[in-house]
Write the structure tokens for this entry.
Amino acid sequence: KDLFSAAVRGSKELRSLAMHELERIGNPDQAVEYPETCYELPTVYAWLGSSAKTVQDLRDVLDSLTIPSDEPTLENAVLAGKLAMISSEILEALKYVQFTEPYEDTPYCGFIPDKTLREFGVAFVDDTIPGAAVLTGTASDIDELIKIVRDLQSKGILIFAAGNIADQLRDKNVQMGAKLMLFPTGPGTQIIHAINFAIRAALSFGAIGRGCEEELVDYLSKRPKVFVLSFGEIDEIAAAAAMAAVINKAAVITDQDVDEIPGVLAQSNSSKMVQAAIELRDIIVNLAPVDIPVAYGPAFEGESIRKPDTYLEAGGSSKTAVFELLRMRGEAEVEDGRITLIGKDVSEFEEGSATSLAILVDVYGKKMQEDFESVLERRIHLFLNFAQGIWHTGQRNLNWIRLSKDAVSSGVSLRHFGNILITKLKEEFSSIVSRVQVTIITDEEEVRRRLPEALERYAARDARLAGLTDESVDRFFTCGLCSSFAPGHICIIMPERLGLCGAINWLDAKAAQEIDPHGPNQIILKNEVIDSEKGQWSGVNDAVYEGSNHKLERVNTYSMMEDPMTSCGCFEVIIGMTSDMQAVFAVNREYGGMTPVGMKFSTLAGSVGGGKQTPGFMGIGRKYLVSRKFIPADGGFLRIAWMPKDLKESMREQLQERAEELGVPDFVDKIADETITTDTEGLINWMTEVNHPALSMLPLL
Ligand code: SF4
Ligand code: NI
Ligand code: NI
């Protein structure tokens, strides 16, 4: 079949549809845009560089995109891809002109906002997500389709379900959504939401400029590694969409018998499509296979298991005795690979039971340190969650675990927890851990007998952690993980200030440095104190100078106003000074509303990120808000006058503790939120009304 001519016809059809819809809107000045993005219509922004945003502008854009003839040549096919891409983008964006949430009552995701894209940031950069697959068309064999999806998920590949695939998966109760790394983009032109996602990844992580077509295409040929698996008959519209994917450097694999053209490969055996795509795009899958009877990968981290689907659970609402503990032990006490089960295994429980459960992990390694126990122990959560049908939340003796009926019928047993933990701990911590053994206990008496030892260990760790202050250590750590997409950004990780992504604290960095001395975390010896109040050390300055490619000479780690730390893009929270310069507001990524400085998180993020110093604003990890070293040079914790309600509530206990420590026990309720005000004046009035402590401080500027 001739894909070229089909694509040319399909793209022209899409153009007339888009033109027709533009006419229908009527008003030529009507703005056309997506919500929550700083890239307007991303394909127009990236490919054409024009800032077309009105009905009239977009008509002009469509008029300018012509295909000189119907000849089935490569040149015409490329033009067809471009025309199909832009037309689809316009058609989709127009839905947002007519409805605020056009996909609200549908199973489809619609346009994926920038903030969701950014949440995948580090995962894209460090290749936790090695690629992205766009599934489209209609699969003839649904079981085979599900196998393909599970296979992709086990490899950590992000999935977009376009065409009829989302519906087919939904019929089989496959869970979808951002958390599951599976976006149900849906049929027709909705495939553009996968394409503009990849394009925005290049724009934001690769810092590609507006209209820089060459750089864009070059970046997309390297990452994110996108491929399309096209199932079933390819009609004209699908052929045009395939060309749109091809010009964005995605490889297209079809199960149909078509003439192969550059970028399109035919593979009639659908079970071989994934492998073909992986080879074509040079995707490197880092995940070591774990020997369990269900799929395993980051996609299952966000999977939830409802009570009626649960075969066996432990802890949480079932209130059984549970705990998990990772201990460093002597060489003779750890037999590598050994899995011991004390008590019953899953098969001996009745469906719907609850059990006591202790997970004891013993590790030995020459370079292992007691300090790393908590770092490794925290990974139990992630490692177990990666298994399909195993759900884990919480930690220590407050964990909660569910095993799904499906997983149990596939043969998953509690012993498999051992397989998972042994494989993953040795994979991820290979240089500090050489032996791992796991003991699983379901016998209630035995769990209770061992619980006190666990509680003792937790308490000892907490005491050690509380004693870890910026003063008590001789070294900090850098984190340069994000510098590949925010050049010049370097995080300084200190005991009392974690990385701005919230994922890396001082102990994590210390462990990571030990594991990989040439990795992203490097030791900073503090050396000479330059300013103890502002938190400036010569050692830190040297590290920042190197890390910023000699652009920055100093950083004050305790200030947001003067030479603050730089930000990449993955901050959990942005803090900034209020318009009257009297107070500080904080806004978390999840909050989509307005802040009292007249900017939303997404707008603020655009100006704070990118490895720059932006005095007056700064990206931080949320825990830093309650640190004793929270911008002491700018007035500290008591400067905070506004934060979204959800953020406040989720941290209430810690905020309260910190307020009491500072002798202002009623402070937390003096912090305004969006239910009180979202503008400057409202905030000033509120602060006066409650006599906010920041009012008696000197202005920030
Ligand atoms: Fe990126 Fe900083 Fe987090 Fe490291 S600590 S991953 S540099 S945000
Ligand atoms: Ni970052
Ligand atoms: Ni980051």
